Amino acid sequence: MKRxxxxxxxxxxxxxxxxxxxxxxxxxxVIGTALDPAGNTxxxxxxxxxxxxxxxxxxxxxxxxxxxxxxTVTSELVGEGHLSITLDFSDFDPIRFEKHLVxxxxxxxxxxxETVAASQGSIVSxxxxxxxxxxxxxxxxxxxxKIDIYQVPAPGAAVLLIGAAVTRRRRR
Length: 172
What we know:
Blueprint: H1 2-20, E1 27-35, E2 41-44, E3 53-54, E4 58-62, E5 70-79, E6 82-88, E7 99-105, E8 113-118, E9 122-125, E10 130-135, H2 136-141, E11 144-151, H3 155-171
Antiparallel strand pairs: 1-2, 1-3, 1-7, 4-5, 5-6, 6-11, 7-10, 8-11, 9-10
Helix pairs in contact: 1-3
């Protein structure tokens, strides 16, 4: 009976681990907004050529209102619990807008995003969604933004270590 309990705990740990990590091909929404007193514009998932972004891939998102204004989004799974996203505004003419906002939706649903960092601008997360903002004048000088997203280590890994320690201790 006790062996079954340890096996159950380990199996639950594996299940938890499987759901916690970012994974190749995971679909997320990327929604960009360029703000200006004269008028705003949008690009990304659901606008014009914008589909969902598959983690580990790239998309070229065309602006909904301005032809020729494109933003390239690339993502890479760097390591366990670490996702890197690159926004390339080189073909967007970002200085025409005062402020740029990008929302990344669908990254997590369990509140496990722990830390976010960006090469420029401001970035925040509520544990599930990541929101980046930057100024057009800054993007005109350096149009590439690198974003790193780290999640809380998978709780399944801790459960597996505890299960292994209990099993080892019982064998002594």
